[in-house]
Write a structure and sequence with these properties.
With 99 residues, the protein is an alpha+beta fold. It has one domain. The protein is built from four helices and four strands; from the N terminus they run βαββαβαα. It has a four-stranded antiparallel beta sheet with strand order 1-2-3-4. The model has no long low-confidence stretch (mean pLDDT 90). This is YneQ.
Length: 99
C-alpha cells in the first residue's frame, strides 16, 4: 500500500519515466514481506537498457526490475535506499518522510 505522495509528484515521476529519464519517487509503503521498512523508492525509466546500466553501478540486477504495468522500475528499501538516494543527490525525498 502506497501513501504519502501528492498526485503532482506521481505525475512528474511518470513523465520522467516515459521520457527516458532515470526518475525517483519515494513514498510511505507497508508490506508484510519487508518488516522494518516503511518507505520505498521507485527508480524508473522506460529505457530498460539505461535502467539496467544505472542499476549495475549499485549492484542491482536486471531480474530485480519490476516490469509489471507501464513504468519499469527498481524498488529500493532500507540502507540500500538511503545510500543510493544520497549518492544520487535525492536525500530530500527520504528526509521529508522521516520528519
Amino acid at each position: 500500500m502506497a501513501f504519502g505522495i501528492k498526485r503532482e509528484e506521481l505525475e512528474r515521476w511518470k513523465q520522467g519515466v516515459d521520457s527516458g529519464e532515470i526518475s525517483f519517487l519515494t513514498h510511505y509503503w507497508v508490506d508484510d514481506r519487508f518488516p522494518g521498512c516503511n518507505t520505498v523508492t521507485k527508480v524508473g525509466c522506460c529505457d530498460l537498457n539505461k535502467l539496467e546500466s544505472w542499476g549495475k553501478q549499485y549492484g542491482l540486477q536486471r531480474e530485480w526490475m519490476d516490469l509489471r504495468g507501464n513504468y519499469p522500475h527498481f524498488d529500493l528499501f532500507g540502507e540500500r535506499q538511503r545510500a543510493i538516494l544520497q549518492s544520487e543527490g535525492h536525500s530530500e525525498q527520504l528526509n521529508k518522510l522521516e520528519k
